[in-house]
Design goal:
The complex is a heterodimer of chains A (266) and B (515). With 266 residues, chain A is an all-alpha fold. Chain A is built from 9 helices and no strands. The relative contact order of chain A is 0.06. Chain B has 515 residues and is mostly helical. In chain B, 68% of the residues lie in helices and 0% in strands. Chain B starts with a helix and ends in a 13-residue tail after the last helix. In chain B, 57% of the residues are buried. Classes of the chains: A mainly alpha (266), B mainly alpha (515). Chains A and B meet through helix 4, helix 5 and helix 6 of A and helix 1, helix 3, helix 7 and helix 8 of B.
Chain lengths: 266, 515
């Protein structure tokens, strides 16, 4: 009758309500204010009380949605698929998000001491992992069929994952390539850009003209290339940018050099 | 959310005419993770358990080597602080040895055995939260790396001479790594406990779950009552270290840090490591002689009672006057009473032997020897613990504290070896070699016994409180004995680790991993 998700979120709702009541009365609430959302009496600290009541409202809404749609209800899913057997014991699929979450926690811990950026990165990884992990857990119990579950999960998450991963990949490539080009000399930068462009063009041409080339080979080449680029970018960032000449205003237009005080054209 | 038609059609095609659950399709099999990728993605708790066991055994070797060096420092062959390069460095290693044996060796070792064994014991296919189990292992490992690196970088749990340069940052990292390790162990323990509570077979009463599963349920509960107190301590210390004057309970850059945490490695909290040892010992004896207890519920009560006496969060004494707490009736009663369940359990094990088949090869089986050794050491530790709380003996702030600690941790290590031998199939390894098993048990028993004995007698000999055993007068022979004991423990740990590694075989692919 009550699905697992409903029970979890309804429990959260009850816990937040209790927390809001306790918080309200212990921070100056009076009469039945905390019980009546401030209608008759004070609720104490408005912000804390408001946050807790808000969380309770969100939990209640989610719980109602989950029970309405019979989420993770094996009997309902079996009925939907015209299955005679109610499938309740689905295997948990392999997932790398627990490991990613662990590294996120580690990064946050190290960042808390060493650098705020690392801390923020760790938090971002934790949030990302939690979302993905939640989706994996939900999809595992969506139906009794692992292939369908995977399809279902991908249909929801792929439209989010692919653009995000693509944007991150482009960002990393641009950042790493720009560090390399800014570190080597002007002439070498032109040579590096030319050679890499030629390699990409040549590789794409070979792949297009020979569809028989294995995916595995392409994956390995792509991974090696990405790692080389990343390592080059990191090494270049550590080495620092080359010295730039800072042309005066009357000469920069003729030379085509970047302007500004830093000269970091990127 | 409804399924799309093509997806249903695909799944039905794959599942055949019956329309039941689809087996693994060829696409799924193709997507199976490689052996190298498996430790990062597996949803098989047995695999996670194996990772815990192997890693903690390797860390046991490193930790016991530190123990050898610390013992060498007590022999007067070389001044302890010269051995490590200063008071602070010696203190760092001294504290690392204790924290590491507890949080990086014994607790994860027994948790690993539990993750692999408990599901099959209670009739579940897997643990309740397989992904949480994986996250538990990796969080624990990353926390362990942070601890070790930060301690060697000048961190640790406090400093005697104050800190310089970046040592404050390293100390903060040590605290955060410690918290991470504790939370990771709690996550794994909750996973095991939930498996026992929720996933056991219908009709299996909690009174009659197998002793090891029951002992892990009790251990998880005790850990949940104890470790969060330590985590709260860490938060306070961290805030102190970062200069939040509102909290400032003590000087963070001083031994005060350790003084806020030392209760964790002293009785009664130190016994939280030992609760699963009882379950392993009873099961190993029963399996060896092929007998079952006539009163399984009695074993359940005994293990539960020992767990109750191991709850240690309340014994945090930094914020109160130590004498108020440690001279109190509750502390003394806990110390004395801890002996009783161990005596009762030894009686239960003896009953099993009497009821079972008593051939020579069975009585000399690694499991039987190991179970006996673990119970003996644990009993010795509890006995010393009982002596320690008797006020006229004046043992409270002496090395007797470490006699209890050594007895418990070495008993935990031996229990790990017994678990490896008893449940090699569940742990996805080949049978542990008999020679290696017997050798490891003998070395650990000999080493642990020497450490317990020398620490206890040293405690009687010293006049003033001497926790770190730095006053070397009058106990040179005992210090040499302790040195020999620590060498034997290190050799035993190395034998166990080598035995486990050499027994490795290709992990079995599970249905879940193949997706």
């Amino acid at each position: 009758m009550f699905t697992t998700g409903f029970k979890f979120f309804f429990g959260l709702f009850a816990a937040f309500c209790a927390a809001a009541l306790v918080y309200g009365y212990t921070t100056g609430g009076n009469h039945v204010g905390p019980l009546s959302l401030g209608w008759k009496g004070g609720v104490g600290d408005h912000i804390g009380y408001g946050v807790l009541v808000g969380l309770a409202g969100v939990s209640l809404t989610i719980s109602l949605v989950l029970v309405s749609f019979r989420d993770a209800d094996a009997a309902a899913q079996a009925h939907l698929q015209n299955l005679a057997e109610v499938l309740t014991d689905q295997p948990v699929t392999a997932s790398f998000w627990p490991v990613v979450a662990s590294f996120g926690v580690g990064a946050a811990a190290v960042g808390l001491v060493l650098h705020p950026m690392v801390f923020v990165l760790g938090l971002a990884v934790i949030v990302l992992s939690m979302v993905e992990w939640t989706m994996d857990a939900w999809a595992d119990r969506a139906t009794g069929d692992t292939a369908v579950n995977r399809e279902l999960r991908n249909r929801i998450m792929a439209p989010i994952e692919i653009p995000v991963v693509g944007a991150l990949a482009v960002g990393v490539i641009v950042l790493a390539a720009s560090r390399i080009l800014l570190t080597v000399s002007k002439l070498e930068a032109v040579a590096v850009a030319g050679v890499v462009s030629a390699l990409i063009l040549g590789g794409a041409w070979v792949y297009a003209s020979r569809p028989g080339l294995g995916r595995r080979l392409m994956r390995i080449l792509g991974t090696v290339g990405a790692l080389l680029l990343l390592m080059g970018g990191v090494l270049a960032a550590v080495a620092g940018e080359r010295e730039f000449h800072h042309p005066t205003d009357d000469t920069h237009e003729e030379s085509g050099e970047p302007t500004g005080t830093t000269g970091h054209g990127g | 959310m409804t399924l799309t038609e093509p997806a249903i059609a695909d799944s039905e095609a794959a599942s055949g005419a019956g329309g039941a659950a689809a087996p693994e399709s060829s696409d799924e099999v193709a997507a199976a993770p490689s052996i190298l990728a498996q430790p990062f993605v597996t949803s098989d708790a047995a695999e996670v358990g194996r990772l815990f066991v192997l890693t903690s055994l390797l860390l046991a070797v490193g930790t016991s080597v530190i123990g050898v060096l610390l013992s060498l420092g007590r022999t007067e062959a070389v001044a302890p602080w010269d051995l490590f390069g200063g008071f602070n460095a010696y203190f760092r290693m001294w504290t690392l040895y204790r924290m590491s044996f507890m949080l990086l060796v014994v607790m994860p070792l027994l948790l690993g055995v539990a993750l692999a064994v408990v599901p099959s014991q209670v009739g579940a296919g897997n643990v309740a939260f397989p992904r949480a189990a994986l996250a538990s292992f990796w969080s624990w490992l990353i926390g362990a790396v942070i601890i070790v690196v930060s301690v060697f970088a000048g961190g640790g749990w406090g400093a005697i001479d104050g800190v310089t340069g970046n040592e404050s940052d390293a100390m903060a990292l040590t605290l955060l790594g410690t918290g991470m390790v504790m939370v990771a162990l709690l996550l794994g323990a909750v996973t095991v406990a939930t498996t026992v509570i929720s996933l056991r077979q219908t009709g299996m009463s909690l009174l009659y779950v197998p002793p090891f599963s029951w002992s892990m349920l009790v251990a998880a509960a005790v850990w949940l009552f104890t470790l969060p107190v330590a985590v709260a301590n860490l938060v306070v210390i961290y805030a102190d270290l970062r200069g939040r004057p509102a909290i400032a309970f003590g000087r963070a850059e001083s031994p005060d840090v350790w003084l806020q945490l030392d209760w964790l490695v002293e009785q009664p909290a130190v016994y939280i490591m030992a609760v699963p040892v009882l379950g392993i010992a009873v099961e190993a004896v029963g399996a060896t002689v092929g007998a079952r207890s006539s009163r399984p519920e009695a074993i359940t009560v005994i293990v539960g009672l020992f767990g109750l006496l191991a709850v240690g969060g309340w014994s945090q004494d930094y914020f109160t006057a130590p004498q108020d707490l440690r001279d109190g009736l509750v502390y003394v009663a806990f110390g004395l009473a801890a002996v009783l369940p161990l005596v009762a359990l030894a009686g239960g094990a003896a009953e099993l032997v009497l009821r079972g088949t008593k051939t020579l090869d069975r009585l000399l089986d690694v499991r039987m020897l190991g179970a006996g050794a673990a119970l003996k050491l644990l009993g010795a530790a509890a006995l010393v613990g009982a002596l320690r709380v008797i006020e006229p003996l004046d043992l409270l702030e002496t090395t007797a504290t470490w006699a209890v600690f050594h007895g418990v941790v070495v008993a935990g290590l031996i229990a790990g070896v017994v678990g490896l031998r008893n449940w090699s199939h569940e742990l996805l390894i080949g049978p542990l070699s008999v020679v290696v098993g017997r050798g490891a048990v003998a070395l650990l028993l000999g080493g642990g016994g020497l450490l317990v004995l020398s620490d206890l007698i040293s405690g009687f000999l010293v006049d003033a409180p001497d926790l770190m055993a730095l006053s070397l007068d009058g106990s040179a022979v005992l210090n040499v004995l302790a040195f020999v004991g620590s060498i034997l423990v290190a050799a035993g740990a190395a034998a166990a680790a080598l035995g486990a590694v050499s027994a490795l075989r290709t992990p079995v692919m599970t249905e879940g991993d193949a997706t």
